[in-house]
């Protein structure tokens, strides 16, 4: 079994090297590491070119900033592992939990696994109250339209069978990726599991990027991809 780790990266000079080190130290030893630099301007790109390219499997450079969803679309397209997982470049999520994330897929119980920051007893840094309220609202709204019972749709940690994620046309370029992918895997009738993970959230001073405008866009995406968007959906029987 090979795990492809896709890292969307924008202005993460302080953490990108540590993230790569943490992935290499994870309990899953056969990892394909794919970094997509989304036109960083803080020196991240230069660091990738000078010292990190030789340590990972692929580094892809966007020539203009396009957003997290666009970076993931690029990374998913070139992944070759049996399972694909998203890893943010900011150290908020711990690669030591990869095995926890992918075990339901390895056991052939799941096609998609969400890592929930609000489930289980793992460490969770206390940060922004209104972020939690907003995320809870978005999750409830999404659940009402998908009829699945998730606790955290905005989590970074999502693991997929490769054939599942590569069968999906990702349309959103920014953080709308999260509600879009949730709606689409639900419509595909994928076997979706959720596991509790730890979360080491950072503040805006430490580089957090998501804001209230992304929350508004998420609401629009939940409505769009569940009620109005027309797209080809492959049922699970079609990609098995």
UniProtKB/TrEMBL annotation:
Domain Glycosyltransferase 2-like: from-to ranges: 4-166
Protein keywords: Transferase
GO molecular function: transferase activity
A Pfam family assignment: Glycos_transf_2
InterPro entries: Glyco_trans_2-like (IPR001173), Glycosyltransferase_2 (IPR050256), Nucleotide-diphossugar_trans (IPR029044)
Protein name, as recorded: Glycosyl transferase family protein
Highest classification ranks of the organism: Bacteria, Bacillati, Cyanobacteriota, Cyanophyceae, Nostocales
